[in-house]
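Just scan my protein:

. . .
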Amino acid sequence: MKTLRLHWLLPVSLVLFTFAASAFTIKINNEKVTGSGNIRSESRDQGQFRSIITSGSYNVYITPGAKSDIRIEADDNLLPLIETKVRGNDLEIQTKKGYDIRPTKTINIYVTIDQLEELKSSGNGGFYSKGQLKGNDVKFSFSGSSNTAIDLKASNLDVSVSGTAKLNLKGNIPATKYDISGTADVEALDLQASNAEVNISGTGKLDIAADKKLNVAVSGMAKVRYKGTPVINQSSSGSAKISRIE
């Protein structure tokens, strides 16, 4: 019995050791690069895109316009390490694999886009609109400690926010859907909506405006405040709160 157990334990231990060693190697192999302090702007032409996906600490400023455009403002020695790739309709922004960059100032990325389909961020960057953006069925997905402020006119908006992310919305969208968790905070009182569907948990907060219909499911210590006189279908548990703003 002891022999069988030993034969079983040895391969498992070897696998665990190999995995741990690999993870350690990956971590220590990331080369740290500190910014030079010489801030430079670089334009990139990579074709049309309608979605933006970021990972890392990037602030993305979005301007509506007919032709897609990208301009990066960062330490000159870090610019080659900031990758921008267009795959289908998606613009992907990330740090080159194997590098841990340390900018002297926030890295700002300026893009122009005609129609918006999706914004997705992980890390502590954010998105900011410069003018009202337009789209049809739009999706937002934010995690980590991202901070975003968007003015949008669309038909539908699907929002997923988690972690400590903060989101400020304004504009006009008939149908909205929110899935909020963690300590995420969403401010959407200046977003005119007819119908809204909300699922919120943890200690998240949502301020929302709805004219016709509001479906709300709240749990944990989450809070939802709304303005308008919609027909409400609500369910709550824990110490969650739903209240109307007078």
